[in-house]
Structure formats: C-alpha cells, structure tokens
Amino acid sequence: MRNIIFFLTLAWGTLSAAFSQTNSPQTVSPTLTHATIFLNRAELTATAKTTIQAGEQRVLVENIPLTIDPNSMQVTGTGNAIITGVRFVRDYLRNAPRPANIQRLDDTLRTVQDDIAAAELSYSVLEEEKKLILINKQVSGSASGVKVTELKELANFYRERLTDIGTKLLRIKEQLTAWKEQEKNIQNQLSDWQNRRKQPTGGIEVSLTASARTTLNLDISYVVNGAGWRPVYDLRVKDTQQPVSLSYKAQVYQNTGQNWENIKLTLSTYNPALGGNKPELTTQYVDFPQPIVMRREMAKFSAAPAIKGSVVEAAAPMADVQSSADFTQIEVNDLSVTFDIALPYDIPTGNQPQLVDIARHEVPATFRHFAIPKLDQDAFLVAQLSGWEKYNLLNGTANVYFQGTYVGETQLTTQNTNDTLTLSLGRDKKVIVERERLNEFSSKRFIGSNIRETVTYRITVRNTKPEAVQLTLEDQVPISQNSDIEVNVEEVSGAKRNPETGKLSWDINLKPNENRTFDIRFEIKYPKGRTVVF
C-alpha cells in the first residue's frame, strides 16, 4: 500500500525565480479539473501524475497562470515520498500552451485552404476548356461544306457546354469568396491568440524526497486573480394571478490567459478581495486645522489569505433536464453561499463571459400598479416578492418578461430590511392616469398686504382592463420653508398625507372600466411684491 504524501503548505509571498539551466526539474503538465469561482478571484484545482527516482527530486507543474497568488498554493497527493518545499517560478522560455479550440481552428484553417486550392484548380481547368472550345469553334466555322444538320449539332454543343461551364465557374467563384472570407476570419482569430500567447507562463515547483522509485499523483490548488462572476436574473410573469418565475444565472469570466476546458464549477458568494479583518475604532481627536503638506506615499497592500472552497456532492439529474440549474447543489455556510454545478463547462479566457444557470425559483408575489402623474402620466405594474431572503440573491441586473414579451431591464437590490422585494415590470397602458390644473377652481386674491393664491388639480384614473387592479396613486402639496409663506391644504380627496413632506397617497381598488377622480386644492399666502415657486 502506498503511503500518503505528507502535506506541507509554504507561504512564499512574492517569491519567484527563473528556471535553472542546470539540474532542471522533471516537468509535468497538469489537468485542470475544478474551479471555485468567487465574486472576485477563483481557486483552481488540478491533478498531475509522474514517476520520480529515489533521493531528492524536483517536479515542475507547468502552465500555471502568472495571475496566481503565490500565498495560496497547496499541494497534496499520494506516493512514497515527502514534500519538502513548494514555490512558484516564472518561465520566460515557454509560452502559454496551445488549447484544444486553437488546435481545432488550425485544423479548420488547413481544411479551408485545401478546399480553396481544389476550387482554384477546378476554376483554372474550366477556363482552359472554355478557351479550347472557343478556338475549336472558330476553326469549325471557317470550314466549307458543313451540312445544316451538322451546324445545328455544333451550335447545340457549344451552347450547352459553354452554359454548363459558365454555371460551374459562377458557383466556384461564389464558393471561393465564402471560403476566403472564412480563411481571413480564422487567421485573424489565430493572430489574436498568438499575440496573447507571447506572455510568459509560470510553474509550481515541488521539492520531494523519495526512498525508492515511486509514482506520484499530485493534487494542486491555487487562487488566481482576473476571474469572478456576476449575478444576472430573468424574471418571467405569465399573469398577475401566478407567482414570478425567477431564473438565477451567473456571468462567469476569467482573464488568466489560459482556457478552462471541461471543468466542474463551484460559484461562491464570498469576495476575498474585501478581506476578513473586522474594523477597529481609534481615538478621535479635535484640534485646530493645520496647513496641508502634499506628499506622495506608496500604497500598501496586504496579501489575501488562501481560501479553500468546499466541494458539494452534485444533485442527481432530473428526468427532464433543461439547464445546469437542474444539476446545482446549494450549500449555505456561515459567511457565504456556494452553488456546486455538476455539469462541466468551458470558460475561455478573454472578455466574453460565459452564462451559467444556477437555479430556478417560483417566488410568491403580489401585484400592484403605481402612478405618480405629476412626474409621469403612465401607470407602472410592480411585483412585490415575499420570502426572497431564502433564495440567496445578490444585487444584480434582471431582465423582465411579462406575458412572454421582454419589457425591459431592472435592478434587483437586496440590501434592504423589508420583508418584500419590489420589482418594476414596466408601463401598463391599460390603466389610464391624467392630471390637470383646474383654472376655474384656481384664483389669486389681494387681501391687505398679502396675496392669497388658490391652486386646484384634478387626477382622473381609469381601468380599461377586464379585471380589477390595485392602484397606489401618489402626489403632493407644497411645504413652506419661509415664515412669510403659509400653505393651507383645503382638499385632498381622502388621501393619506404626510405633514412633514407633503406627500399624498391613495390606495385604490379599481374595478373593470371604472373611473375615479381625486382633487387636490391648497392656498398659498405670501406678501405682495414677492413671487413664490412651487
């Protein structure tokens, strides 16, 4: 039975070195198997297998991104050996490996170029045949004593053959245009990758001691910068009688310079970039201000601690598989939530995020209409989601679909203390709202040294929908900020009024095809010769 390799974690800080030209370590290529992706950064897990001889040996696990945090390296494994050291080294002589998708592009390019060469050859042969026929036509036309039937046969032959050749030449020309465009696009893609490939890579050098020849199975993990994920949502509402269908998704990105191919993903809501140290209050002093002296200081940064993401057992697949959301296991920890996705993914390096389905929920919701006609004449349909806390949502962008139609984009904000989450579903043109100033009920009077100005507004709401709607209507009356100005509210049609802000609100149950009116009237008293603004 093989012994388990002793585990040793060594924090080397920013230690790195160039590869030695003598006594070179044994080089092995790792296989990336898993990525735990935080909101900022990611922890990668890889395996490597090799055989070492007895004595002190060094094994270099190559093709490690330069975006690695050297403090986060961890190496374990099996074999009859002891790990005595781990360090990160830079390789200036070796470029990034050629990923499988780039190799496929190379193969496609060669196939397209072969097709272009074959088509150009066919085009050239047909052109020569066309010239030969035309020359033969001139010779035949100069011969005397040609019978009428023979002339007709020759004419038919020339017409049919030249037509056939012309048709084939046209088709080949069109195909050549398409193939050359494809060749150009592939070459541009390969050129872009080649420019990025010129960046050096790194490696994790593992020092070991073995008492005999042994096979090593190494497990390597490390944290890289330039990776993370952002939450996005799809909110679908069939009608106002059913719950909201919420699709929880993630835009996963990475710019490590290497493609991640066919790996398992774990998404974590933890953000290691924020650090975990609690703040401390220091003494607050009061003093007279001192002259400011400008000076430049170097910013100080502390390395983030190495983080080991937990791996969760994947859920059994459902019979009607729709997306990776059906393969996600959710684990709630004290400080974060992890989503373990059993389906493997390809995450290419670059600036094109990969969309990953996390979960789907049916969220209970109540629906209301809101209108503030002073600011906007339309009524807005709003969904109020209850019990949203248990779904482990984060702040993010939500695409809203109502009755199968995309209605717009909204922001899902979870940083509130309410037990409901309010989402705007867009404008509802079937709830009509109008606000107008009634001049016949407005006046301006001069009494003594003061002016008394009366202003009246009328709000009319109408429900043209076949079902009743709950409408919250909002408006306001002005609040005086000057002792010389007095505001007297005379009519608000039963609205709830906030005396500090002047806000008015009505909660209305509008029946189908029902009309309602609400009047607002207030009087403003102020000195003659002055103008008020409200």
From TrEMBL:
Cytoplasm recorded as keyword: no
Superkingdom in the source lineage: Bacteria
NCBIfam families: mucoidy inhibitor MuiA family protein
Keyword Signal (UniProt): yes
Key words of the record: Coiled coil, Signal
Protein name: Mucoidy inhibitor MuiA family protein
Natural source organism: Salmonirosea aquatica
InterPro entries to which the protein is assigned, alphabetical: CHP02231, DUF4139, DUF4140
DUF4140 domain ranges (all copies): 35-132
Domain DUF4139: from-to ranges: 218-528
Pfam families: DUF4139, DUF4140
Leader peptide range in chain numbering: 1-17
Coiled-coil portions: 102-129, 169-196
